[in-house]
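Weekly sync notes, structure subgroup
Attendees: PM, AL, DS (notes)

Item 1: joint prediction request from the bench team. They want all four components modeled as one assembly rather than separately. Inputs as received:
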Amino acid sequence: MNEDRSLYPEHDENGKPIIDLESHKFLKLWQGPQHPGITGNMSLELTVSGDEIVESKTHVGYLHRGFEKLLERRLFVQCMPTSIRLCVAEPDPNEYIVSTAVEELGGIEIPDNAKWLRMLSLEMARLQVLLRGVPGQAGTFALGLGYQWGNYLRDLILDSFEELTGGRVYHMYIIPGGVRGNLPEGFKGRMLEKLKLIDEFVVKIDKLIFQNVVFESRAKGLGHIPKEWVDKYGVYGPAARASGVMRDVRKTNPYLNYDQLDFEPHVTTEGDVYARSVVRYNDLQMTVDMIRQILDKMPDGGDIRAQTPNVLHWKIPKGETYVKCESSRGEYGMYFVTDGSDKPRRAHLKGPSYTHANALLDKLLINANIADTAAIMVSLATCPPEIER
Amino acid sequence: MDYSITKFLWSLLGLFIILNWGMLMSSTMRRVGARLAGRIGVPMYQPWIDLAKLMALKTWLSHGVMYYIGPVFRLVGGVGMFLFMPIIFGSEIWSNYSFSGDLILLLYFQSFGMLGMAMGASDSSSPHASIGISRGLAQFAAVEVPMTLAVIAIAIQHQTFSFNSIMEAQQGGVLNWTIFTNPLASIAGMLAMLGAMSHSPFNLVKAPNEIPIGPPTEYHSSFLSVLRTNSAIIHVVEAALFMNLFFGGADTWLMYIVKTFFVYFISVFVGMVFPRMKVEDSVRWFLKWPTAVGIIAVLVAAYWK
Amino acid sequence: MQKGINNLIEKFGASDLVERRSGLSFITVDQTKAVAAITHLKDIDGYTVLSFITAADWIEDGKMQLTYMLNNPAEVAEIAIRVMLERKKEAGESMETIHHLWPNAKKWQQELKEMYGVDFPTSPGVNDSFILEGWDDMPPNRRDFDTKQYAEDTFFPRGGRVTHDPATYMREQLDPKDPQYYTKKKKKDINS
Amino acid sequence: MEEKKDKFLAPENEVRQVSAPDGSIIEVDPLKDYFSQEKPEPYKVGSGPVENFLNWARAESLWVLGFGTGCGSIEIPPLVTPRFDMYRFGVQMRATPRQSNVFIISGYLAIKTLKRAIRAYEQMPSPKYIVALGSCTINGGMYYDSYNTINRLDQYLPVDAYIAGCMPRPEALLAGFAELKKLIKAGKGHKANEYVENLEWYKTNQKKIIKDWNMPDYNW
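Output from the run, pasted for the record:
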């Protein structure tokens, strides 16, 4: 989108558009919280002139549960079931960052097998998000067919999660000290079968969405993020990679055993909605490949948990840390402060949606068409619960 | 024209059949779409239950007189289109109130419902309704151009503005259908049909991700049941319009059902695999290719006659 | 040592350096010099990304800690600048704004104002409500706000929610007659 | 009280002067002029075979409002996609409250969302039903001690069916819809009347936690 708003409406000396609602030239339009084009429970306060958005403001807080306050009242082990609900769509990174923060401050080393199992669970979580998210991008332009197919495959991955962890959406698999269980009998074979289905799906999606004339014409040039904005506005993950900046925590700060895997995140320079969906499409293929590698390189059995103190009386000395991992949306981190008691002093979640959905979205929506708000939001993979927590 | 009470009753019966066929067709199409996605889809009888349910809901809201009249206008548009088009070719009782200039009247009735809806929806004080209806009118104005050009080309070809004569000229084998005798006009007309049917990529009016769900946002209970009745009728009648113009009309009820099903299926099929266009792109598109084809069709028809 | 930390210590008098791991350091900077130090880190040392701003309430020390997490993507390094504000009894600590360095800082500052009561004068929209709506109690993330008490007073809790001390409760449930049963059994298992 | 109301009033709802098309200046009070102040009346519940038929139709055609209020909404997409496919049972999604008659409260309700949920609920045509998902709506669940989420939904809105779990599986949701259908067919689905009859009590509870009540008492 061009930033030149010099023509209409008129601007005051500070560069703010002069909007007089009583003049009937502008309309205030609320999208959300009850709106099918909004990713989750948030709302956009749009000022439109005709079909064009003149000013946009994001409103969040509809999902605020006060997590950071609640975690201050929980034992370290009680933090786990609470914190996984921070972002519903992809709960595993929450488990990972909280348990890693506790381990780091508590001085616990986890066994190698647990690392591989954690990677498996994280990558499966990413896979189930992308199976919905990649065709979901076309869903914002009312091409729902791929979304239906993707959701079916996502359900298969959730079945695998159930097999591995016992939970469908909330797994609580990664806990301080390791993971909760080893691979079930025959899990690898069944997972590989499902990955084959996903390979077929990937081909179909390419034909249905990325070679579609209308999709191309609508997505190309839409919601353009220049390279300079990546640092200025805090753009992470696939959105940054679509603007030509390599941002992938797995590559830059390898955690767990990611340095033993062979993968190369896709980087492109266009920076529009189409580029972002292509990057996420490539992520999907890469994730499938990574799960294959993980299943291949994983040791057969072995310790899955390190010895931890009694979790009911676990006191961690004063300290603070910042742990991060790569979620499907970008860098996902936890700032964790302990004060020597059995409860955290402060836990602050930093999700990419915070910067994506606030300052950046307000900027991107200016000059866009009201028909395109959903597409721009989905391409940034906004997840409201991690904004307000 | 025959204005007897029997004629009226036959037309009413035809309307009843078409209403039920339209509802059956809509659930069938939803099932087809569901199968494509890998689902089972709604039961065949779902539209009737929905209609009964909507009548069973309490109406307690008003936005003024036009708000009440809007759905009625819309229904009049649909029923008017039905009344002035012969259902079965060559049948006296199923010819409705067709007369020699019915094609022109029909083109008018096509926009009648939309205009009525525009007045009702803009009175319903929902911004989404106003945006939806302005999109709808803009697109409809663009759709009318290739459609009218196609109709003119056919009228020149057959030297008539009457459905009966156009259908008559197409009898005697598949190769006599307009789609073979006048392919250019047919292409322009069928592309216009995609717009008139309001399926993706041209379903701008009820775009759920953008303006949920356009003009009927505020309409509920019995208002909505009127709108749904109308949409069931209008889908069949629109399909019948194009069937009569390009596919040789129908001489039995079976033919009518089969042909309308397939004509409607074309738009659904296209809609399943294409995302929605933006309104400016859609208007531009209609004024570009279908219009160009339509102009050529008119010139060709005028030259050969 | 990470790039920029020497500068911080020499020029801005930073103290309490904790190197958590390679590429992540925590350091305390005086309130008056913090914005200058952050600007220096951003413009000269390449810490171009602001990961977040947050606060931690050290009520017993009378301090309100602000943490600015800065990221240097080129060198893969992070510095957390701690700023210790004097904690006031009623909310209303004040800190300089950094929204001119990163436009999204204004949202964190707005959140801190709302959730902790730390004011950032001249930050745009800092007094607007961000997450809460119609809140009229003290900022909820401050340590002295008792969320459980507030919830019980406000939200009609349904009865039946009981909390036990896990250790004693488990013993009672396993063998109510002999409270030491569980401990004894465990010892026996280990011995055998 | 009056002063407090002004504090939370949105700028577009303030009393102000506007110029009419003919040039005259008039004063409008949006809350009084643009919204209806009418109190709702309970509707008449019929009886006999006609009512039974209508109840059957209401039960077999449940239109769900597409408003994901909490985490439970993550299990709604599986319901409309191949694996679970709730369209088979006549349950469909609608985008606007005016056309839907089932409101799924999917999990915890933050106070800010509760205000929107009340508005959406009051806009739905009767008879309308609320299905509450998850333990959060029953007793607060995970967030029993949170300052921003309600503990018991039935204090604020009348609930027809609870589906327990955190979060309930899609199968549980389908079972919940089946239960709701049974209730409606038995003629017990008239909680909307209960809401209207006890409006005072509900409004007192709602206003206790929604402190910036800057909308009409009943949102038509």
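Discussion: Chain D touches chain A through 37 residues (CB under 8 Å).
Action: AL to compare against the crosslinking data before next sync.
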